[in-house]
């Protein structure tokens, strides 16, 4: 099943993270669910940082051409 949600990219990411957290909480006992949700938050932050770094590197590269 595919959903085509026409909203900006950062909002889509937040919705996906929240949906995953809901699935984690529904399928895991409490202490493990909290741990996994925290891990997901950390991974989301790292992904955002890597994306920002990529944009900056790409911009710097394009300015040098």
Your description of this structure?
With 65 residues, the chain is an all-alpha fold. It is built from 2 helices and no strands. It has one domain. Helices cover 83% and strands 0% of the residues. Helix 1 packs antiparallel against helix 2. It starts with 8 loop residues before the first helix and ends with a helix. The relative contact order is 0.09. The model has no long low-confidence stretch (mean pLDDT 88).
List key phrases describing it.
65 residues; mainly alpha; 2 helices; elongated
Quick rundown:
The chain has helices at 9-27, 30-64. With 65 residues, the protein is mainly α.
Walk me through the topology.
Layout: H1 9-27, H2 30-64
Helix pairs in contact: 1-2
Question: What's the helix-strand series?
Answer: HH
Overall pLDDT confidence: 88
* Integer count of domains: 1
Q: Which descriptor suits the 3D outline?
A: elongated
Report the end-to-end length measured between terminal Cα atoms: 43 Å
| Share of β-strand residues | under 5%
Low-confidence stretches: none
How many β strands by DSSP?
0
What structural class is derived from the secondary structure elements?
mainly alpha
Q: Provide a count of the helices.
A: 2
Q: Which percent range fits the helix content?
A: over 70%
Largest sheet: none
Round the Cα radius of gyration to an integer and report it: 16 Å
